[in-house]
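Subgroup meeting minutes
Present: P.N., E.W., G.H.
Scribe: E.W.

1. P.N. recapped why we're keeping a running log of single-chain structure predictions: easier to compare across weeks, and new members can see raw inputs and outputs side by side.
2. G.H. added today's entry (338 aa).
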Amino acid sequence: MARSGIIRFLSISTLVAVYLVILAGSIVRMTGSGMGCPDWPKCFGEWIPPTDISQLPEDYESYFLEKRKVKLDRYTSLVESLGMAEIAEAMRNDPMLLESEPFDAKGTWIEYINRLLGFFSGNFMLALFIVSLWWVKRRPLIPIMVLVALIAIVFQAWLGSVVVATNLLPWTITIHMVVAFLIIGLLIKVFHLLPKKTLETVVKARPVLAIAVLLTLVQVVLGTQVRQEIDYIAMEWSDRWMWIDMLSSKFEIHRSFSILLVLINGLFLYKNRSLWGESSFRALGILLVVEILLGMTLAYLGMPAIAQPLHLLVATLFFGAQCWILFRPKGQIAITPA
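Output recorded in log:
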C-alpha cells in the first residue's frame, strides 16, 4: 500500500473510531451511566471493572468519593488560576459535585466500553500522526493538522477525567462535544489534503456552506445546553412527556434556530442541485431530513429515549458531511498520488 493509501486508511479508521466514541457517549448520557466509573482512567480502581457489588469493598463509595474530592480540588484550583474565581467558588460549594454514586453493573460496563473506544481512537490517532510524518517536507500541513487533532484527543481524555471529577458538570460536557466536532473536522481536512487520482467537481456557494458549518456548531452548543436541562429535570420527573414543558427558553431558541439551519443548508443544496447524484450531497440532504424528523420526535412525541443518542449521532454525521464537501479540493484538477 502506498504511503498516501496508509494515511488515508488511518484517517478514515480514526474518524470511524471517533464517531463510535460519540455514539457510545450519547448512550452513556441516555442511560445515565456517566458516573458508572467513579475514577479515571481506571474503573473502580481496576483496568477491568467488577461485574458484581460483592467484588467491591464495603466502604467503596466513601473511598472513591475521597479520591474525587482530591481531583475536584485540583480542578477548581486550575479554574481559579485561569481567572474564573466565581466559577471555582461555586463548584466548591455545589453539594451535587460530591454526591456518591452506588454501583450499577450495567452502567459501569456501558461507561467502561465508552472509555475503551476512546482508548482505541487515541491509539489510531497516534498511529496516524506517526505515519503523517512521511509528509512533513512535501505537505507539512498534514502532520501539523494531525498533531492538532492528537493534542485535541489528549485534551478530550483529560477532560474526561474532569467530567468524572466534577460529576458531569454541565459546561465541561459542552466543551467535550465541541472538541469532538473539531477533531472530526480536522480528520476530514487531512483526508482531503492527500493526493487523489480522481477529478473533483466544482462545488458552488462554498461560503454559504462555511456559514452553515459554523451555524451547525452553534446549534450543537445550544443542543447540549438543552440536554443539560433535561438531565436535571429527569432527576426529579420520570414522565418524559412533561420534560419539554419544563424546559427554559433555550429549547425554543434551539428549535427556532433549526429553521435557519434548514434554510441555509437548503440554499446550498439548491445551488448545487446538479451534484445531487454524488453520494456526499445525497448524504447531506438525507441526514438533514432525518435530523429534522428526530428533532420533531423529541419535541412532540414525549422525548423517547432511543431518539436522544440518534439525534446526536445524526448531528455529528451531518456535520461530517458538511465538512466533507467544504474541504474538497477546489476545481476540476487531477492530482497524481505519491
